[in-house]
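Re-run with default settings, no changes from the original entry. Doing this only to confirm the output is reproducible before filing.
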Amino acid sequence: MHNKTRRSVLKGVAYTGAGLLTAGAVNTSVSASGEEVGLKGNINHSVSRWTYGDLSIEELCQTVKTLGFGAIDLVGPEDWPVLKQYGIDSSMCNGADIGLTDGFIHPEHHDELVSRYLKHIDLVADAGYTNLICFSGNARGMDTETGLTNAANGLRRILPHAQKRGVVIFMELFNSKVDHPDYMADNSAWGIELCKRLGSQHFSLLYDIYHMQISEGDIIRTIRDNHTYFGHYHTAGVPGRHEIGDNQELNYAAIASAIKETGFDGYLAQEFIPTPDNKTGRIESLRQAVHICDV
């Protein structure tokens, strides 16, 4: 979704959840020594729920509040009441898909996907949220042009309702080299072409930096040239999908600066798998990642 039009959509959405905060509403963090450190407010930070699955949703909300930001990614309806209790945004909602491999490129799944997404769009909108994830699915011998046609046909069946309810559907880009063999949407060009064919402010791409570094590299140039199609970002270190510090090949401070320079007002969500074997260490990994990207 184009960033400027995303702003207009957000202005038109009624946030009915009590105490709901934007990602930038909390602006202090706590260092390892306990000293409060302010976040700059240029980047809207989030963290993917599944990467901190050892924490209860309540513990993760408390952690997010302590670290000074206000959103959690990939959260379903069952956990939204807890997020609302803590004033945490569900920055990317999930739960409508069939799975990662059976997505919108498969017409045989369209009826079920449409039914599931229409219901979930209402759930997301009624909860006061905006973003809902979807997937292309695996190719299984299908050529890319057929995949584009099929995906566009399926998504056109849900986008009018998404527009009516102020919800944006995001297709995530994965790499098919290491993590998701045979996934169709494994490069930015395919996703961008799908955006062009749909021509909707309510469809956008989730540009996963980790996945796209493995698939195609050239991250900063791609973001600068195509940022209007990227409405959400995920992080992780390459190789290994762990912390984003200086022991991996991506310069996340430079990437976050490039994202900021585009005028992006969506979310940058940490989606690395923390390596410490204790909760304190894993939370410290998240704190460090947020500050690396807080440009």
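Confidence is low (pLDDT under 50) at residues 1-36. Residues 20 and 30 are 22 Å apart (CA to CA).
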